[in-house]
Automatic annotation (TrEMBL):
It comes from Flavobacterium defluvii. Keywords: Signal. It comes from the Bacteria. The keyword Signal applies. SUPFAM superfamilies: Arabinanase/levansucrase/invertase. InterPro entries: Glyco_hydro_beta-prop_sf. This is Glycosyl hydrolases family 43. The keyword Signal applies.
Amino acid sequence: MRTHTIKQLLFLALILVGFSAKAQQPNPPGQVTGNEKPKNEAYLFAHMTHNDYGRLYYSVSLDGLHWENLNNGKRVFEEYKGHPDICKGPDGKYYIAGNTGDDAKAINIWVSDDLITWKKHSDYTPDLKSTPDYSNALQRIGAPKLYYDTPSGKFIMTWHTPHLEGTKEDGERYWASQRTLYVLSKDLKTFEGPPNRLFDWDMGTIDVFIRKVGDSYYAIIKDETYPTLYWTTGKTIRIAKSKNLLGPYSLPQQSISPNFREAPMLIPSPDDKIWYMYYEQYPGVSYGLSIADNLNGPWFQASGYTFFSDWDKYSFPEKVRHGCMITISKKEYDSLVKKFGK
């Protein structure tokens, strides 16, 4: 009787092992099938690398999930320095913002017709001490980002700036003191007034960018408070929402990513029905991907970086670090591939 029971248990275990060996996530939603044409034809990932931080590299994708290096993994524009962020203006031109370092006083902006040839457009030096209710701001400018707001006909440029130095006892004091500032401009040559704080709530935020979907504005942020039992959302990607470009923004939603993730990037899927949110597990360890059918969530995390091809639902070239992702046309994709080669 006992032998019979053991055999039954062994048989059941073998069945369970068989099921678990075959079990895996379904493919991410948002892809086109058959003869269906994608609404979003291709994607550009402008990024830095682990070994060459702050310089400009390109990777491309046709499905928003699988990415390939361009230019044999070499820089595509030698003059650029910064955390690359690109947006398309109302003139059809592309603009990229950067700076030579967080302690540099100026934000540098270049312009391009084709994402291949860039020329200097302007430099902007914010008077950080003039920001209302932020007179103790340190001369630090982190990760400037651009967004063109069609309803207002203006660009908004955001970045993060701290107001406290770190100490040996509390290095996190510096990061927790980061606040997101912004300035408006019609042409990215002249800028309106002093920088202002984007959020009226008092919380550390970095890597913030804005998108308008429907009649709402969404601020995608990294919560820069250190994670604890009493602040479980620390160092995660979250979203705040507003009816207006400049707010007031809601308190951020629950975390989209695990802890210790930063540099979010958001793209629509090829069929334009799904959102793909990428974020980096720092320092340069891996990328994560969360997926939703609207920016209010809920979000789920896709499988990646398992090193099993039948499990990984997305893939990146080795050593890529954060930057930005944008949709491009198949014609632009072909031109980039022709120029730089995959």
